[in-house]
Design goal:
The protein is mainly beta. The protein is 8% helix and 32% strand. The chain has 2 helices and 11 strands. It has helices at residues 16-23, 128-132; strands at 4-8, 29-35, 41-46, 69-74, 82-86, 100-102, 106-108, 114-115, 122-123, 144-145, 147-154. Strands 1-11-2-3-4-5-9 form a 7-stranded antiparallel beta sheet, covered by helices on one side. A 4-stranded antiparallel beta sheet has the order 6-7-8-10, with no helix packed on it. The longest helix is centred in the first third of the chain and has 8 residues, at 16-23. The chain is globular. The relative contact order is 0.26.
Amino acid sequence: NRYRLVYSIQDEPFSIQNFHSNTINKEQTLILIMAKETNNVFGGYRRLEWKEDALISDCLQRTSDPFSFIFSLKNQIVNKPIRFDYKNLQNFYNENDCEISFGQDIKIDKEINFTSILGSSYFNENYGNEIKNHSDTFLAGYRFFEIVGFEAYSV
């Protein structure tokens, strides 16, 4: 099987530390998220490995991955899967301090606050106008959201 589950909130409670301990030094990681309020399904892919920051316990190094992308599998606006590639390397980061993030587009901070603002670092020009008016709600349904599903796969 090409996809190997390395972390799931079905197996252990969600925390930044649990995610990190299961993904450190893993390359080609696919993350799937399901929003509680809408059952929207979305996520991100990271080609480079997740590396631990030696200076900050339980945190990851700040790195950029120009090969990463985010995607929506199920949402309330466009009824088909959509991939979003990074659009601006200056605004792009995958991890920051003790967060799991793909730019500002998908962000989970150390207090377990989930936020999404599509278009901050990733974009799909084929859906520009359709999505532009819904940047806060496109991926999860709300800018601030809760989850019922979170899985990470090694690809």
